[in-house]
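Shipment paperwork, digital attachment
Item: protein structure file
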Amino acid sequence: VRYEGPVYPVNPREEYILGYKVYPSIAEVPDPVELAVIVVPAKVVAEQVEACGKRGVKGAIIVSGGFRETGPEGAAREEEIRRIAREYGVRVIGPNCIGTIDAHTPLNTTFVVGMPRPGDIAFLSQSGAMAAAVMDWAAGSGVGFSRIVSLGNMVDVTTGEMLAQIGADGRTRVVTGYMEGVEDGRTFVREAGRVSREMPVVFLKGGRGTSGAKAITSHTGAMAGDLEAYRAAFRRAGVLWANTMEDLFDWGRALAWQPLPRGNRVAILTNAGGPAILAADALEEAGMRLAPLTPDTKAFLRRRVFAAASVENPVDVLAGAGPATYAVCLDALLTDETVDAVVVIQAPQDWFKPASLAEVVGEVANSPLGQQKPVLTAIMGVATASDATQILHARRIPNYQFPERVGSTLAAMWQRCTWLDQAGAEPPPERPGGISADDARRAVEAAQGWLAPDRTEALLRAYGIPVPGSGLAPDVEGAVVLADKLGYPVALKLAAEGVTHKTEVGGVALNIRSAEQMRAEWDAMMRRAAERDPGAVVQGGYVQQMLRGAVELIVGVVRDPQFGPLVMAGTGGTRVEVTRDVAFDLAPLSGRQASDLLEQTSAGKMLEGFRGAPPADRDAAVDVIVRLAQIMLDVPEIAEIEINPLMVMPQGEGAAAVDARVRVAEAAAAPPQAAART
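Attachment content:
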């Protein structure tokens, strides 16, 4: 089937190309023209985009390369294309892409030979080579596609925008993609989240190293690399994170073709023990588990299989069982109330064709009962199983060459199911109360770099985040006076410019119980500071109330350049970068989302009460995380905030920011009210 609309080649030196009349310029092409595919040298692409704009063409695909991927000169060419496209209202895909395919129209604007069969899986890719490889794979796998889009450098149309378009095309059931980066992270999260509520979205992220530019002096900044930001963005938007191209289309096929499991209990039906063991291992590693099977199911199976067969899960019907036995057993497993999904495995044998098994599995799986639970198959091999694979894929049952691949696939389907349940029940985050925006702005006014402790404390108090009683002492006698006022025991912390991790320079003394001990600790601390950093500018010591009987957390927020404020929470202490027991999410956060952050780490168990300890005030910790995220949304000058430790007291007694750091990236102007008073 060929594209039935008119095609107009444009070339100043030819009269006919492949039987089509050629026009010397876009201006001379007959009306109407909806799309221009530009394949010319990079240096003349901009003028052709302008010609399209003047002609009234509103869509262009730039296949040509030679832009920002080649260096500064190419980047300048790309910027000129962006300017012209915006001036004339031309939407551009590319440059440096292979084009797009709509298999249903059908329309193929790529230079890759062939058209995938029409289907309901879309594939977006920033890499043209990946898109070409997927087309070749699809031709031999029996998998159809709705759209294949190569996005290239994304001078205009972004991944988020293309997601929105494909999500509304009426022909796509699953969107898959290969991504290296995003042009507008917030738009991607918004559009992907909207599309994910209607259909599964699965992406493979290339270039998964941590960005060295973010490894700054706070723990939060050091651990919040590109990878964590993208993972948080995918989770927030409901995008499934694939680790390999194999995952991408293993999951994509199953999500497009099969119903979602309503639980994580899986039955395995096999003719060989080894493959079943591999499948069971893969399922367990992915967070799934074997269904227990009811006594009635096992009794039914026992009467219909060989005496030596196993009716426990995995159900092993042995090598002598034929397609009819598989059909009866599969029907019984789908009927069992303890089973949420079934995996059918067949190891190669020589007494019936795998295609005959594929036929009966397809019939049972597509019965009214079968359509309520997912069925995945592993009819193993290639040479003997290719016909079976084609039959199964035509029946919308994904077949895998090896059984290990079913584990991550069913786990992705179960993750999709749980995300949908949570997304439907999740209220939008609410702005916390008890905030003084004016006080917060004054705390960062005219500041740059790390805020002084008193300003940091003022900022936290402005957002309702409790801090222990404290004060800055310029000398040892001032420290004694402060300690007497606050009440022993107290902590003493070094106050010095440029010192953010005080413990690393011996700048923290805890549990000081008397004036004599205070004087001794002060002298020792100042001596250590002078020895380790003779040039340090010491302002004195920070005296703070000691808090006891608490769980130590670390909570922080760093401003990611793509996705905005990235929130971190987990187990606190001085070794947090070694243990890395932390989790990330995007701001703003609801209370449940903040609580989920803690549950992703051992902090969740610590707060419940670990080894006889009383439960800690989880609600107070969650409230601090929500408020910390809100600060970053409200005060754009702040680059990062970290509290380590956040001391969480026993249940009902609250939480307090014992040690906090705030870094301001650019000086904040005075708030209007303050300016009026001066």
